[in-house]
UniProtKB/TrEMBL annotation:
It comes from Pseudoalteromonas gelatinilytica. Residues 19-123 form the PTS EIIA type-1 domain. Keywords: Sugar transport, Transferase, Transport. Coiled coil: none annotated. This is PTS EIIA type-1 domain-containing protein. The keyword NADP does not apply. It comes from the Bacteria. InterPro entries: Dup_hybrid_motif, PTS_EIIA_1_perm. It holds the Pfam family PTS_EIIA_1.
Length: 147
């Protein structure tokens, strides 16, 4: 399954994530993107199960059962966003390419990091990524394989 990128920006290995929780794949394997765009886009058709942490975490489930976490974090602990627009709420059906949220990144002094983690990866094979730069809703961020 090809997962379209929910983010626009520069792709970074999850092993470079500043938070150990993600860096060591505690929740599952994934990939990070240093954001250059304000929009977070649905990576596939499915359901938005939960919006958490003031709109900085989204748990999504694809129609085939794949569950992912989209997490937004800052490189500086003091950073926060004042202008957020969450387009979808818990339990909403989502379509690939549909906007989930908008954040005003111009308020930030350092880049925001978007992370996609596969939550139920125990029944999957390796995950692949090949691009160093992605555009939300256009480019494939991860390819998920079966065991």
């Amino acid at each position: 399954m090809a997962i379209k990128s929910p983010f626009t920006g520069r792709v970074k290995s999850i092993s470079e994530h500043p938070e150990p929780f993600f860096r060591f794949a505690t929740l599952g394997p994934g990939i990070s993107v240093e954001l250059t765009s304000h929009n977070i886009i649905a990576p596939f058709d499915g359901t938005l199960l939960q919006v958490k942490n003031a709109g900085k975490e989204y748990i999504l489930q694809a129609k085939n059962g794949l569950k992912v976490l989209l997490n937004l974090s800052f490189s500086s602990v003091e950073e926060h966003i004042n202008h957020t627009n969450i387009a979808k709420l818990n339990g909403s059906k989502i379509s690939q390419g549909e906007r989930l949220a908008y954040f005003d990144l111009r308020e930030l002094s350092s880049p925001m990091l978007g992370t996609l983690c596969v939550l139920n990866s125990q029944h999957l094979g390796p995950l692949y990524y090949s691009l160093s730069q992605v555009t939300a809703g256009v480019d494939t961020l991860l390819t998920v394989t079966k065991k």
